[in-house]
Amino acid sequence: MSLAPITKRTKLGIISYDYRHLKTEQVALGLHARGFEALTFYTLPFAPRPGREILFEHRPDMSGGAHTRSVAEAVGARFVACAAADQIPADEADLFLVAGAGILPPAFVGATRGRVINIHPGIIPLVRGLDAFKWAIVDGMPMGVTMHTIDEEADAGEVLSIVETPLFETDTLESFAQRHYEIEIMMAVNFDEFVAGAADPGAYDVRPARMRMPLAVQEQLRPAFEDYKARFAAGRK
């Protein structure tokens, strides 16, 4: 992707929820600490999802973070509440970084093509969709985090960088999930260092996007992780 040079004065829009959101807090504080001066929060209404039984939480509770309005104030950023994603002004930011959002509408995608960056917690195009960490383990796929641009298809667009998540023999499922999430935050905070990466998505098979992992499949996760370590842990090859 060809982008104008990114500087600390690049106008960066952070897309998130008008709600408490841990990833947004972590990314915004990290960008502020690095000296980014022109941040604008574009937030969308948050609708709590129906409760469902989860056997393993592979990500921290996002509602444990500060409210995005408070985070914006703390880092001196503009705060723009939008009723829907198609109300985000496409021309107000040089780049947009997704910290939290559902599927973005085609009109917004078309107006910002190549300028909306997402960090997906799976290797695209191999592991796409929801619960990517869990599906990678159950399906025996390599684990990693992908920076990509948004297009009309879920977890597609141009792949900019892929960082594989190291796995060690001493890892538990919990420690591996934590490291994977930390890489996701690291890539978002340092997005400017990854946009011109040398990713080769052609090295991975193209697989369809997945939905949330059903309870019956979640029950296979911990046994599958032991086989996964035997295959992928450093020093086992």
What distinguishing features does this structure have?
237 residues, alpha/beta, Rossmann fold, seven-stranded mixed beta sheet
Tell me about the largest β-sheet: 7 strands, mixed
CATH-assigned homologous superfamily of the domain at 12-119 and 144-199: Formyl transferase, N-terminal domain
Q: Helix share of residues?
A: 25-40%
Secondary structure class reads alpha/beta
**CATH architecture assignment of the domain at 12-119 and 144-199:** 3-Layer(aba) Sandwich
Count of alpha and pi helical runs: 7
Residues in β-strands, percent: 15-25%
Per DSSP E runs of 2 or more residues, the count of β-strands stands at 7
CATH topology label of the domain at 12-119 and 144-199: Rossmann fold
The helix-strand sequence is EHEHEEHEHEEHHH
Unreliable spans are none
Specify the oligomeric state: single chain
